[in-house]
Amino acid sequence: MTTTDKRSKGTSRREFLRDAGLLGVSIAGAGLLQACGSPEVISENPPASTTPETLPSGPDVMSADMAAKKWNFEIPPDPIPDSEIANTVEADIIVVGAGISGLVTANSAAEHGAKVVLISASSKPIFRGGSFHAPWSKAMEAAGIDRYDVDRFFRREFSNASYNVDQDKWYKFYNNAPEAMNWLIDKMEAYGYKVGFEKGNWDPDFGPMETPPGSHGFYSTESSPVWSIPGLSAEAVAHVLAETAKASGVEIIFKMTAKQLVRENNNTGRVTAVIAQGADGKYIKYVGRKAIVLATGDFSADRDMMAKYCPWAMPLLDDTGSQGYDTTFKFGGLFKGDGHKMGLWVGAAWQKTYPCAPMIQGSWVASNQPYGSHRGLVVNKNGYRYGNEDVNGPLSAIQQMRQPDMAAYCIWSGNYAEAAAPWYSFGMDVQDAPIPPEQIRQQWEQAVEEGTMVKGNTVQEVIEKLGLPVEATLATVKRYNELCHKGVDEDYHKRPELMVPIEEAPFYGAFMSGLTFLTVCGGLRTNSNMQVCDENDQPIPGLFNVGIMVGDTYANIYNFLVAGHNYGMNCLTMGYLTGRAIAEGTV
Predict the structure, then answer these.
(1) Fewest C-beta in 10 Å: which of 42, 162, 307, 366?
(2) pTM for this structure?
(3) pLDDT (tens digit, 9 = 90+) per residue, 469-494?
(4) Is residue 150 assigned to a domain?
(5) Domain harbouring 249, CATH code
(6) From its phi and psi, is residue 206 left (phi > 0), alpha (psi between -120 and 50) or beta?
């Protein structure tokens, strides 16, 4: 391995926290969908917002009839004629996309003897996050961390998803993830990285918010080319995988945007190629003798696709500040579903799970859990306490979205720093000591100075600074304190140890900003071999996909209760298995 003198520092932890909304950044709301155009086609570019008078009334906003119509994104463009193809490139496998899943697949295939060409519309390897989940690895064994009970955690996740997911994929992941993780660990250690484990949520009674161990991450050292810590390892992993892919003979071509798939016999035969357009505007046909593998990311930046496949998350979309194909930590919408569309155009079916599961986060204001939300008193804009606050961040986000104006506020007293201890934040290692209460208070004071929290000598002063109705909110605080002293939450039955009265000055409060939309999971119908399937669940010969676009893995919401699961499953484990299987001809 070679290293450079000038090390790329990558994305810092503070930058990630800032961009994720943890330092007070909020996401703007988006408008509703409006149908327009011909009776059989839904507009590709609906207006960002509409007045009530222009919206269809009643069930026409999204009726079964409308859902059955063709949307513009489903209508194939005219085929690119052969006369416009400037060149043809052949390989055993063509991988489309230079994110984690595409890079893993390319590495694995090349290591098992395949000639691989990877094309990507981006100008560099793409990443965001993150930790990489595996239930077991040699690093866990060395650290004395036990393999967790698959029944306890996976069946809980199936229940959370109403069993509306493909169990076959989940168990294939569980059975094969240790091998894939050990493969990645070897690569990262060769570049000077050390394995760490991201701290998850805990519950003394192994309750519903408990996070299983196994969220692997990597610490950078002086010899590592890119800065990294557990929980923010994806940039380093993408860098290493790009380097190891090239060392294994993979040809990586950036700024090459896939436009269309080529399927033989009028879209009834094998997918043989993908036509892409370079920065010079010329088209190149990439022929995959064995397979074309799509690893093109999500569809969250296409409003029509979101309206059809994930409508309830649309209020969290943000169309501003697009980074194009180099998008990393852009929140509110990432990619436009290029791979999904190309698959649909050649006969791929959409996943069976509806709607697709968004990946969102709630506020981490004064939260003592890495993936938790504020676990003290939370009220809506009317000063009303609306539920048990002991929930994971994404689940608190759903509850907040149900409140008037999607607004929520938390109020607590200074002694909460000790009473809610221990404190752990996102990205901490399991071996890290808790954050001392005095440091937590310093963080609160800094937030007050920055204007993301308020402080007062009385609860009423805090309520007034938050702009909440004084009388109603004071009554809620009084009721909450009564329940705290009883030791029993008679209203929402929160665990007694989390019931901390709000009585000791100084008092703090905050608007729970940061309903942060990260991405949307799923898409094309995919079997457990990562073969893209048609409406009859039959694999389309020659066509595979990996990564977040794999269908039927998640339902309802990506809840972070198995932290790093998408990277560990659809990107690492499935990419590793798929590249090898295609190269060896076993699929």
Answers:
(1) 162
(2) 0.89
(3) 999 999 999 999 999 999 999 999 99
(4) yes
(5) 3.50.50.60
(6) left
